[in-house]
Amino acid sequence: KEFCQKFPKIELHAHLNGSLNEDILRQLGCSDTSIEKYQKLTNILNKTTRTLEECFDLFKVAHNATKTQENLYLAAQSVIRDFDKENTIYLELRTTPRSEEDMSKEEYIETVVRAIKDCKNVCSILVKLILSIDRSQDAQTARESLDVILKMKEKHPEIIKGLDLSGNPSVGNFDVNLFEKARRSGLKISIHCAEVKNDEEVKKILEFVPDRLGHCVFLHPKHNGSAENWNIYLEKKIPIECCLTSNITCGIIEKYEAHHIGELIESKLPFSICTDDKGVFRTTLSNEYEQVMKHFDVSPKRLYQFVCETVKQCFASDDEKRLLLVQLQDYYQRVL
Ligand code: 5GP
User: Fold this and answer.
1) Number of structural domains in the chain
2) Which domain holds residue 263?
């Protein structure tokens, strides 16, 4: 446990509002009833029948708490500090720009960028931002969101690096034109994929060849994925962001040992170890590393190699990647 806490970690898949813990939600003015609901649904040990929909309901608690620029700023800073405290050396935070009564989508993005920039004064962690398109948005709203995102990327190219497609996987679809446009404009692409069985959509996403994929639970034939999609995947070998506790808590994977990261490790396919929503799923990045070591017999040296591979998959600049590798090598020489 202590080893994983101290290990220099890389987080590539963390949703801002899903990463808020109970303490920060309280500080942001959440009611006891909302917090109780949060606690009941997020406790992995009390797993009863929990649906994806119920898990998605939980995000509303955080969204209610981050409706103002002031609260959003505090929330973003608290998440970055949490990751920094557990020795995460690089974080790609992702969030869906929302317009609220007193905040436009542009102001939403500007606030998160400001929180990231201000953290540089107090934290050593390097942070980049991925902006998300919610799959439940209609085509017109999604296009408008992308326009705002592209405008803000021009303004903050050193922070805003990627575009993500997320939101309830049972709703909406993957609009290839939207993501083609984002890619042409220089954004890296990460897409939530195969969280529910939907072979047709998975094929469309794989053929687009995003820079990274999120989850991919129903992709390997052993996990009910189609052989055709698995073969396309093997040709492309797109890195997969694995979020073990999240998948178990949402009830789509039964236990850690059954997670498809096992097949990725065995077949030497690229992946990263991530939290997804550390607040909603009551986890930490250290815990995710620990579970992978424990359930897949991963030695410290192997973990080090996995994390060095993860650096290659991140959306930082080449110089920043080199510096991250130096930090990791330094740790390796001192400790391992
Ligand atoms: P936000 O984007 O508001 O900062 O973070 C919460 C949002 O991220 C959720 O409302 C949802 O749209 C998205 N999200 C968080 N976790 C997951 C997940 O496991 N799967 C998918 N598809 N979307 C997620």
Assistant:
1) 1
2) 2-335
19 CA from centroid of ligand 1 (Å): 10
Place of tokens 């939530």: 192
- Report the Cα 73 to chain-centroid distance in Å: 19
Q: From CA 193, how far away is CA 240, in angstroms rounded?
A: 9
Place of tokens 């930490």: 284
Q: CA-CA distance, 44 to 287, in Å (whole number)?
A: 13
Maximum pairwise Cα distance, the chain: 53
Express each pLDDT in 76-131 by its tens digit: 999 999 999 999 999 999 999 999 999 999 999 999 999 999 999 999 999 999 99
Residue in 70, 87, 88 with CA at minimum distance from that of residue 27:
70
Which CATH number does the domain housing residue 72 bear? 3.20.20.140
ipTM summary value: 0.99
In the chain, alpha helices (H): 2-6, 22-27, 32-42, 52-65, 69-85, 105-119, 139-155, 176-184, 199-208, 227-236, 244-249, 261-266, 285-295, 300-313, 318-335
Q: How many angstroms does the Cα of residue 167 sit away from the middle of ligand 1? A: 5
- Which of 108, 166, 201 should be mutated for ligand 1, with most atoms under 8 A from CB? 166
Check if 132 has its Cβ closer than 6 Å to any atom of ligand 1: yes
Residue 180 is among the residues annotated as catalytic for this protein:
no
What pTM, to 2 d.p., does this model score? 0.97
